[in-house]
Amino acid sequence: MTSLAPIYKIVPRALWRDAEAQGRFEGAPVDLADGYIHFSTALQVRETASRHFAREEDLLLVGVDPVLLGDALKWEPSRGGQLFPHLYGVLSMESVLFMEPLPVDAAGYHVFPASIR
């Protein structure tokens, strides 16, 4: 049972399909360069999308159970001093709660599931 709200990763579909085939996600190029996998909370993920994935199509929104990440998950200050979840390790598929498309509307904004407020 999850005791914390899910955390989210926005991932290009092709990169995620490769990760599924390998059974683990080692990170996007920015994650590999920074030494950890970047995640966002529900309150942060829309701004993450607009800042880093503006108008980008063929993306997936991956929901992850932070409890299953254990001590490899660190909450560290980033944008504006907010604490962001960073995973110092690989993401196993067993930690993934869901994965769904993150479409772009006619105005170029990503359309998030209603469950993410």
Key traits:
117 residues; alpha+beta; ADP-ribosylation fold; three-stranded antiparallel beta sheet; 3 helices; 8 strands; 21% helix
Describe this structure as you would to a colleague:
The structure is a single chain. The chain has one domain (7-102): Protein of unknown function DUF952 (ADP-ribosylation fold). The protein has helices at 13-22, 29-34, 45-52, and strands at 7-12, 24-25, 37-38, 59-64, 73-77, 83-87, 91-92, 96-102. With 117 residues, the protein is an alpha+beta fold. The longest helix has 10 residues, at 13-22. It has a three-stranded antiparallel sheet with strand order 1-4-8. A three-stranded antiparallel sheet has the order 3-6-5. A hairpin with a 5-residue loop joins strand 5 and strand 6. The mean pLDDT is 94. The chain is 21% helix and 30% strand. The two termini are 21 Å apart. The chain is built from three helices and eight strands; from the N terminus they run E-H-E-H-E-H-E-E-E-E-E.
